[in-house]
Design brief:
Layout: H1 5-24, H2 26-51, H3 56-111, H4 119-164, H5 166-174, H6 182-221, H7 226-236, H8 243-258, H9 263-292, H10 296-310, H11 312-330, H12 336-342, H13 350-368
Helix pairs in contact: 2-3, 2-4, 2-6, 3-4, 5-6, 6-7, 6-9, 6-11, 7-8, 8-9, 10-11, 11-12
GO cellular component, one term: plasma membrane
Main location: membrane
Pfam family, one: AI-2E_transport
Amino acid sequence: MNLSFQKIFFILATVFGIFAVLVFAKTILIPIGMALLISFILFPVSRKLESWGTNKIVGALLSILFLVLIIAGGLTLFSTQIIRLSDELSNFTDKITATFTDVILYINNNVQFLGDFNREELIEEGKGWLKDSSGALLRNTFSGTAAFLTGLVTTIIFTFLFLIYRVGLTQAFMRFASAENRQKVFHMLKNIQEVGKKYLSGMFTLILILGFANSIGLWIIGIDSPFLFGFLAALLSIIPYVGTTIGATIPVLYAFMSTDQLWVPLAVVGLFWFIQTIESNFLSPKIVGSSLNVNALAAILSLLIGGSVWGIAGMVLFLPFAAMLKVFCDEFEELRPVAMLIGSEVVGNDKDDKKSSKWIGKIKDWFSRK
């Protein structure tokens, strides 16, 4: 098989153009991607409301309001714990400074990479550094919060538009195909919507299971605000592969700072290691993995590419998008090799191996003929 220079240039230019659009238009594309996934799971709710006599606009508004009330209820439930935790964090400054100072002095006494320092001088310098850092952190927090709220409002607007224009958008996509293939395109769009809906419902179920498991474990160990830390760690699990580790780090650090007993943070580490093992080997493959049908290689690549292009939002969105891309490629004969590379079929099985061996044998016989 020979590829001409024009084809190679066209492929490379297309890939480069897609990445350029994803990077430069991420402010718009991230809310659209989030809204698309959210609208997939709100479609049945909006359709049910319309069957009860409401029009599309009212049904879409009530569907979004239902989701907002669930999120607001969760935030209200944890608001008192968040306020109490923020008050405790200010008390951890002295312990952080003292611990850091002891580590520096221990290393310096053995290596002598610094001059003579006493503990009081290092503590004062540490407090000054923390004070300066807290100001920068506060500014970054305000700017990040403003960007988050802007993206949230944009996502809600796009979700509303997707819900009220879903029929028109579906018909528009179907008209890209010829009349005899429009039913095939409609079937493909239904499958894509089903993948997104199953992914979000599976993630919601997984978050609930992990949240209660984490919270009960932290409560047994004796960590303050166990449900806050437990559900925060569970919520971060939507970031594939690294989210659970980040979520476990927060309660471990809190346990280290809030108690002088070493067994407490070690117990928290053991708890999250045990839960993460069960989650990665049993829960995720059964609850979420079955709806995606994406192999580990494609999942890791989507995670890395999404993180490099859109940051944390890309790490969350690109995995279900990879599953949707597989559904799209499955509908076209020319793109089915791409679907095989993304899907779990690339792993193969004994039946596939026998078929491959059969075809390889036929090819060898064909070439061996004189």
